[in-house]
Amino acid sequence: xxxxxxxxxxxxxxxxxxxxxxxxxxxxxxxxxxxxxxxxxxxxxxxxxxxxxxxxxxxxxxxxxxxxxxxxxxxxxxxxxxxxxxxxxxxxxxxxxxxxxxxxxxxxxxxxxxxxxxxxxxxxxxxxxxxxxxxxxxx
Length: 139
Ligand SMILES: Nc1nc2c([nH]c(=O)n2[C@H]2C[C@H](O)[C@@H](COP(=O)(O)OP(=O)(O)OP(=O)(O)O)O2)c(=O)[nH]1
Ligand SMILES: [Mg+2]
Hints:
Layout: E1 11-19, E2 26-30, E3 41-42, E4 45-47, H1 54-66, E5 69-82, E6 87-99, E7 110-113, H2 128-138
Parallel strand pairs: 1-6
Antiparallel strand pairs: 1-4, 2-3, 2-7, 5-6
The protein binds 8-OXO-2'-deoxyguanosine-5'-triphosphate and magnesium ion.
Residues 12, 14, 16, 35-37, 42-47, 61, 88, 90, 124, 126-127 line the site of 8-OXO-2'-deoxyguanosine-5'-triphosphate.
EC number: 3.6.1.55
Protein name: 8-oxo-dGTP diphosphatase
Domain Nudix hydrolase: 11-138
């Protein structure tokens, strides 16, 4: 008898932006306490809506969360991570041009940090390869 184990957890597809300014500072924001991974710092973004593509979700989420309009983006890394209660697929993009002044439009704290300062913040476990890729690209 062959037993095939199928992971019953749905995969959550998330568009994530690593927003970078002219001085190579990166924008991070703090997740509200009531959310999954609450209290940790993140790169802004969120789940794709039905029938939305990654670029569309990235633009929508950064407008909703930070009130900026994405002008230019480029792929950085794709990370799949199993949290046990859910599996996330983080589709991570550099955002190197945008219109507007980013602020925490949903009441969340946001900060511009240097690549050296990234290590001072606690990110969700899935973010380890993202932070590593950012460090590698900017060092
Ligand atoms: N945006 C973002 N999500 C991350 C990061 N790292 C990480 O594990 N995640 C996880 C946390 C969540 O389970 C999921 C993203 O969900 P989200 O809460 O941002 O989604 P959303 O903005 O669409 O929120 P909502 O409207 O459903 O409340 O991905 C990250 O750096 N940025
Ligand atoms: Mg979000």
